[in-house]
Amino acid sequence: MRPSQNRPTRRAFLSQSSAAVAATSFLAANAHAGGGETIRVGLIGCGGRGTGAAEQALTADKGAQLVAMADAFADQMEHSLANLKNSPIGGQVDVPADRRYAGFDAFKKVIDQVDVVLLCTPPAFRPIHLAYAVDKGIHAFVEKPIATDAPGVRSVLETCKKAREKGISLASGHCWRYEPARRETMKQVFDGKIGDIVAIETTYNSQGVWEPRKTRAECKSEMEYQMRNWYYYSWLSGDHIVEQAVHGIDTMGWVTDDKPPIRCWGTGGRQVRTDVRYGNIYDHFAIVYEYPNNVRGYHTCRHWVNSANQVKDYVLGSKGTCDVFGNAIMEGDKTTWRYRGAKQNMYQVEHDELFAAIRKGDPLRNVERAANSTLLAIMGRMAAYTGKVITFEEALNNSQRLVPATFDWNDDVPKSPVPVPGHTQLV
Length: 427
Hints:
The chain has helices at 10-17, 48-60, 74-85, 106-111, 126-135, 150-166, 180-190, 222-228, 234-237, 240-243, 246-255, 346-360, 367-386, 392-397; strands at 39-44, 64-71, 100-102, 116-119, 139-142, 170-172, 197-206, 263-269, 284-290, 296-303, 310-317, 321-323, 328-331, 334-338, 390-391. It is of the alpha/beta class.
């Protein structure tokens, strides 16, 4: 498929997502906080990851204060607030009842009164929330993945451009890229210790995540039911290849310097998790990504109980192999290098670096690379759902919007069927 001139291409995508861009102008009123100023933090999305992110953000900067919170569900927000108040950073939490908001528009009320926002909702909402934050000149921590469909990815890329113009820091939640041991291990690859890259193997085989939390009978509408059980609906989570296994696919992006692949193909389905309560997502994927110079990226992921788990990344080179999780370089059976430095909490490092950048006035910008990795995961999902070979341009330019244009608790959200390869079409 040859994209038309007004459509994004691999070259244009590289231009958009490259870290080496023109110097930034500092236009945003909230772009810089001095060393003695209080940084007002807001949390949007108060699940387990959001609660953890808030604690790490306040740990990163003793001058930061959590002042506002929002979630679709008030009960979840109250549970999160109680946990935060009882944590080591409880003294930095000041969120009275009039700064706690519930509902689909609650995010605006938080963003309107903070300096930094933590975007930790289900992935479907991140493009919308991030766009609003940047329009308001607010720094953001954006959990992975950054979208569930290609229009969402394109939206985030446009928002990142605006953030650069305003001097706003945007930090991605791809925590593996922050871990010092992994950074040093990847440096060995980039320094040529394993020779030319031949292939990348990433695996995220696990038991799965939490079970559906509510039945339809316990919910007032189909929208509430799907929101309560968001992981199991592709419009909300992107499917587990996008929501969870994107970590491994992000390693593939890291190795290739976030240069897009040419095409991908693969398979997937529901072999074990077949009950209707598991929504419309798959329980396994196996995808091959083809890069220039005959480099291949092999990704597998699955959610199967009572099966062998493996979460590992390997980079295969002409002279050796990098065990990314093992922080080691090997030539045959011989280990020629191993990381011996200190270990750090990667979740904490991502917030340490974000808040240090804000204090310094030197914007941190790595959400473009998260957009790249998210699109690779969406591309793999497209290949598995349709049974077709998907080019990068087809994925980037895809027009299918999984996320509704408007949100209402009374909406009868379409119950999308489980995709069937050979029948499900690429829109």
